[in-house]
Amino acid sequence: MIDITGFLINWLAYFAIYAILAVTLSLESGISGITNFGKVAFFGLGAYLGAIINTYLLLAISGVDIVKAPPYTAEGVIALIEISTLNPALVLGVFTLSILVSFIVTGVFGYLLTYPIIRVGSGFVGFTLLCVGEVLRGIYVNMEFVGGTNGLLGIPQPFIWLGIPMLSGLCYLLLSVTILALIYIVTDRILGSPLGRTLRSIRDDDIAALCLGKDVPKIKSKIFFLTSGFSGVAGTLYACYVSSVNPQMFVTLVTFNVWAMIIIGGSESPIGAIIGALILTLIERILPLIASLNEYLPFTPDYLRPIFIGLIMIIMLIKYPRGLISMKPPKFTKSAVEELMREAS
Amino acid sequence: MSKEVRHILATRNVSKYFEGVKVLEKVSITIPEGGIIGLIGPNGSGKTTLFNIITGFHVPSEGEVLYRASNEFIRIDGLNPHEIYRLGIVRTFQLPRLFNSLTVIENLLVTPVGQRGESILNAVRRRTWLEEEKNLVKKALSILTMFNKLEIAFKYPAQLSVADIKLVETLRGLMANARLYLLDEPLAGLDFATARTLLNFIKEIRNSYNVTFIIIEHRIDLLMETVDYVYMLHNGRLLASGKPDEVIQNPDVVKAYVGE
Amino acid sequence: MEIYRAILCSYVFSWIYILSSLPLTLSYRTTKVFNFAHPIFITYGAYVVIIVNEVLGREIPLAVAVFLAFVVGGLVSLISHLLVFKPLSYQRVSSNVYMVASMGLWFIYQYVLYIVCQLLTRRYDVNFLSYSTIEYKDVRFLQDVLGLNSMPQYTITATLIGVSVGVALYILFNKTVLGLSLRGIADNASLVAICGVPINRLVNLTWFLVGGITALSGVIWVNFSGSTTPDLGLNIVVDNFAAAFIGGLYSLPITAVASIVLALIENMLLAVLNYYFGVQPTVRIAIVFGIVLAILVARPPMGAGGGLPYRFIKRVSRK
Amino acid sequence: MPPIAGKRLLALIFATLVIGLIIGYSTGYYVGGLGTLQTGGVSERTYTLGVTFALSGAVSSVCVQWEPVVRMAIDDLNNLAKSMGLNIVFKPHILDDGGTADGALKNVQTLYATGVRIVIGPALSSQVKAVKAFSDSNKLIIIAPCSNSPALAIRGDYIFRTQPSALGESKALAALAVQEGLKSVVSFHLNDEFCNVFAQSFKKFFEESGGTVLYDLVYQSGQADYGSDVASLASWVAKLNPDAVFYCGYATDGANVLTHATDEPTLRGVRWLTVEGFYGASEVLTHKVVDFARAVKMIGIRPVPITNPLYDEFVEKLKKYGAAPTLCSENVYDAVMIAGLAVLRAGGSSDPDVLRRALIEAAKTYYGPGGWGLFDENGDRLQASFRLWTMAFVNGTYQYVDIGHITDSNIVIEKTL
């Protein structure tokens, strides 16, 4: 029997996390023209921050000796498991804290990156940020404090104390989806506001925008603060979902998966980004079932999975080169204008 | 500064070198408020460079640029372009630069500086900027109606005629209550009639808003019947200046154009 | 410190990076496609040599290897252009779309290769998923003749391939009409089109060259490294990107220099750091990309997309 | 091509979603969760064992060798079941996780959703860590064939590991080194949990028994080439001139490192000790490397009990499936067998706790190629005796040969190096 509820819960939680990345990426890259190939840098930073806070702080508060039982040893993990099942309030509190911290820290990190972004110029932002991501990964690998290549283990899923896996999974799913919805609303509002208009103008022609009094670096840095912060939140959600982090999780390929999502869905509209995320994450999860063709194929059937994914990506791009959802002019201005024109006539 | 005619902009001995090559040499011009000033000269005579210096794209190697903000003169050389724009100076480019993914009306709406809806916190709360936006839309529509171009309000730049594009570029300044307009070859690529209508629009704008224009233009014939003062640049130096007819008579000018 | 091997590695890697990052820049200049499937050409170049070598009973000469790799790499590149990039270019898509499409291509090529390797492994009872080195008979012969047996073979191979490709390209681009028009396309396609040059055919040719030359670095690879896997390209691609970007996706000389610098950092610098300062080689990623980052920020490349005229200068005091 | 409207698209998405789920559903039937009738109405129950290996990616060249092992084990299980007259048929559901934690988690979740209750794999400790939380909360039994991270030695969870803990093995290796008269060692290993553990515990035991580890050189995985790291190793060996090099790496990087090492005269001058990291990897068996191995008297250790006919039988049978024994392959076999026996013992119950208890019981009485299946309280396997191996040119082919064994009592090296 296939267990649809479980499938949906696992998949949708995963989807929500990636959708957050996709939406923010569409805001910063599709709409404000910061070609961010270093998405994973912020994702990973958020994940590591979440991991550190949710393990070290939790252990410290509950009086475990961090030096003797760090979270990358069995003792630490066992202690964490006990805490996470026994002390719901504490776990939830620390989790909330970690979300806030990773939003702020990652956001500030993004804000500081504005200088190189402006300096290298639009054509090279992407690769510069990609380098940032790789450097961060290199740092994680060499930090004993976060377990080096072994990474951290036993990050408590904040609802694990509910006992019933289905239920705690559902709660976590709801939490992630709520955060996604929040971020989507913010993005959509920004898109429909004068700010969104300014952003699109900067994307179209930043020199002209500059001549029209737009302080391009300042606006870009503000937006980048926001999107990076949200990516950090996604990272924390991911860390607590997988409940372990290690440097190999945050390779550049992650960034390009998110890029595929927004390009396929339509890079200029958050709804497109969400749909892109929906499609790709679902494909990834449905396709493993072809592996049951085992005895009919002379090779490992699961090798076909990436091939299918690649084919689907290419076909969709050739069919919908602008993405499934093309950008529409912001709703509000249009409607306001129409009503005013009606008044006039 | 003489009392009777208020000046809005003045450059004092502005020089500019690019890697040692002298592009501008001690150029001093003064722009009376409410005038339409022509800036002529053969290609490579430094007209656009002067614009770039005034609008803050380049820093002058020597000299200074003065501008009358509110009531006293301030130095604007060395400010960043967006800061200069906020003082009320707007420029257009030789190749028009409208925002292609924005409709005409959005192109107008984007121009006013310091809109409340431009900060993230306000952007997410509609009511904070709704009123302002409505007023801006009203203004934009009224401007378009004034030049009876209402029909292009929702066209994208790609769908516009060259003349309309150039007009919209100028109107963007109006939206932002700019006081000084620097137009870089506004007539390029326009046929005679359209060019004249555009010039008439410019006059109209000047008369009804009392703003100032500096126009770089090669089509002197058309220009001369519009402007009321002309500066002539040649090889980065100020060659001649005066009323249009005087400048036309000036032998150096003829020489410069006909070529040595 | 035993500097000898580090020097050799840097030398060979310089050639490998140059041979794979110059074509990347070239393809971007010509078609504005930033091709994430680029590393695949290296891998395929290496694998065609390996496969033929096994089929021939481990007797492959360098000449044959070069020819096969060049043709196969070129064809793979040409096919990806004709099937994916060309249809997209008709729709005037943004460069990001090309990028994602090339990612799709990369997935496909990568895992097709995995399947092929698996089938071959079962057929020939040799592990194709991770293959050791290949000795080129004719290079060995050359070494005997020239008395260079003390030198590791791969240095000879790298030099042969690198130099000959360099000379060939120089002649092509500077001495022949074809090459001149190729350069023309790279600089200003529309202008060349006006001159009545068959753009399409030349673009195809460019793609073929790009794939072919990149594949040659695979030929060096199988002679140099002890392990070739389908992930080969993936593992060295980011260095190619780094070199290409430092060169501004435009300047071939700077790209070449950047390739050499990267090779030196990865082989010499890390070895020196480890030996004299006790830094473990695990800092590799951080060091390499930290330096690339520093270079990019210190000297922003102005090839493809220039920076804004921001000066961030102090305000001049107002009167 | 005009882009289609958002609403219609969403509808379309959810249509595909539903269709996908239906497909999943039917496949769920097809690959058969417990107790479902196979399509075609043959009244035998098919039981699916989930498998997730790194069939692509950095360690793929090892893991692809495991796939035939799984098929062989499944066949053996089915024969066993038939001989016992049970009408149950085992099927593997083999997925590729590319060696990434993310992929492993996705695979395990998908497998669980299709009704799988026992998963063999994933390969790397980092992946096992990534799936631990899911396994704990859903009580999904994970049998990791090749993970030895002490951080995963956790009492009472649903993760079992058929790879014996590295402690006993590295203790034995240290004893061997001492007996071979090696005083000082430079350790050179992959920066990967598997090898880190070995390096650390070897250092510990070796220094306890009087030796010294002069320097510990760690190289990063996921590179294309390790030439520069070998150069560093050569420099250290030249500087500290130790008696031996302790090396740990997998097949692919091992082949690379050794191939580069063959060109280093300094590295030929010392003994080489290693573990089972690249045992059985055919890409290492080039004449250069084997010659090098002879020159440096390379000795490797691996956790396969001595005088175990089952193992030799296993190797023989594996040839028919076109594979050679590699790192952990006997553990993979044992993992599948123990899982199957547990299912039989649990009488087809899908209650995870019943399965878990059955698994522990089945392991107690199981003796396979990898030795006794008994798990300790952390769900890790116990191992007492080890085999020593090296590479040699034997009757016309390069191959891995056993040259001796180590038991807690004594160290025997039969063949001369």
- Helix share of residues of chain D? 40-55%
Major sheet: arrangement of strands of chain A: 1-2
Show the largest interface: A-D, 65 and 71 residues
For the biggest β-sheet of chain D, the strand order reads 7-6-8-9-10-13-14-15
How many DSSP H or I helices of chain D? Answer: 14
CA distance, first residue to last residue of chain D: 71 Å
Radius of gyration of chain D: 23 Å
Q: Helical content of chain A, roughly?
A: over 70%
Secondary-structure element order of chain D, N to C? HEHHEHEHEEHEHEHEHHEHEHHHEEEEE
Tally of contiguous helical segments of chain A: 14
Task: Describe the fold and architecture.
The complex is a heterotetramer of chains A (345), B (260), C (319) and D (417). Chain A is mainly α and 345 residues long. Chain A contains 14 helices and 2 strands. Chain A is globular and about 70 Å long. Chain B has 260 residues and is of the alpha/beta class. In chain B, helix 6 packs parallel to helix 7. The two termini of chain B are 36 Å apart. Chain D is α/β, with parallel strands linked by helices. Chain D is 45% helix and 20% strand. The interface between A and D is large, with 65 and 71 residues.
Short characterization:
The complex is a heterotetramer of chains A (345), B (260), C (319) and D (417). With 260 residues, chain B is an alpha/beta fold. Chain B is 37% helix and 25% strand.
What's the topology here?
The complex is a heterotetramer of chains A (345), B (260), C (319) and D (417).
Chain A: H1 4-31, H2 39-61, H3 74-86, H4 88-112, H5 114-120, H6 125-142, E1 152-153, H7 165-192, H8 194-204, H9 206-211, H10 216-242, E2 244-245, H11 252-265, H12 270-286, H13 304-319, H14 331-344
Antiparallel strand pairs in A: 1-2
Helix pairs in contact in A: 1-7, 1-10, 1-11, 1-12, 2-4, 2-6, 2-10, 4-10, 7-8, 11-12
Chain B: E1 7-18, E2 21-27, E3 30-32, E4 36-40, H1 47-54, E5 62-69, E6 72-75, H2 81-86, E7 89-91, H3 104-109, H4 120-123, H5 126-146, H6 162-175, E8 180-184, H7 192-209, E9 212-216, H8 220-224, E10 229-234, E11 237-242, H9 244-249, H10 251-258
Chain C: H1 3-31, H2 38-55, H3 62-90, H4 95-124, H5 137-146, H6 153-175, H7 177-187, H8 189-194, H9 199-224, H10 232-246, H11 252-277, H12 284-298
Helix pairs in contact in C: 1-6, 1-7, 1-9, 1-10, 1-11, 2-3, 2-4, 2-9, 2-10, 3-4, 3-9, 6-7, 6-9, 7-9, 10-11, 11-12
